[in-house]
Specification:
about 190 residues, about 5% helix, 1 helix, 6-stranded antiparallel barrel, mainly beta
């Protein structure tokens, strides 16, 4: 017997990427890992990405398939190397170099931040949080918060085009992904 889960009758909802879908990137420090490998995060600053033009969180593994010479059928599958890709595009930003997200990416150990690229192999890890809100006030649906821990951003692009607003693409990779049923950002009252 097959049972249907989370049907519309059971409270599933539409979620809308409109003006109420939001993203924040937090700076802070990660503690030592516990027995499960989770490292607690203590935020020290937040960057709200404004004038969003979309965001995406995509979690996945690499897969290894085993085939034997004596059969065309797959013998087994294993997964390894989990990572979470995060992407966001936004237009409104604060560019004071002492408090700019790009400055922290370019200078992971810098204090104070100067906006100059630091000659280091160290990486600064961020926390990425996004909210997706239910559409049309469906009272049976629940809010969705996505939190990605230990995110590093590969680079910081600033694409400037003639007669166009600047849309900044932010791409990174995280270690841990959590889906939660809250309609506020972490570190705000629930």
């Amino acid at each position: 017997m097959v049972t249907e889960k989370n049907s519309f009758a059971g409270g599933a909802a539409l979620y809308f990427g409109g003006q109420s879908a939001k993203v924040r990137v937090y700076e802070g420090e990660y503690g030592d890992p516990d027995e499960t490998g989770y490292r607690e995060f203590v935020p020290s600053a937040q960057h709200t990405l404004l004038s969003l033009h979309g965001w995406e969180v995509m979690a996945g593994w690499q897969y290894e398939e085993e085939y034997a010479q004596d059969s065309t059928f797959r013998e087994g599958v294993a997964r390894h190397h989990f990572k979470v890709d995060v992407n966001a595009t936004y237009a409104r930003m604060y560019v004071g170099v002492d408090d700019w997200l790009a400055s922290r990416i370019m200078s992971p150990t810098g204090s104070p931040l100067t906006g100059i690229v630091e000659d280091t192999s160290e990486v600064y890890f961020f926390q990425f949080a996004g909210l997706a809100t239910k559409f049309n006030g469906n009272s049976l649906s629940v809010p969705l918060r996505v939190v990605v821990d230990e995110v590093y951003f590969e680079n910081f692009n600033l694409p400037v085009q003639e007669n166009k607003f600047i849309h900044v693409p932010l791409k990174g990779h995280g270690r841990i992904l959590r889906y939660e049923n809250y309609d506020v950002f972490p570190y705000e009252a629930v």
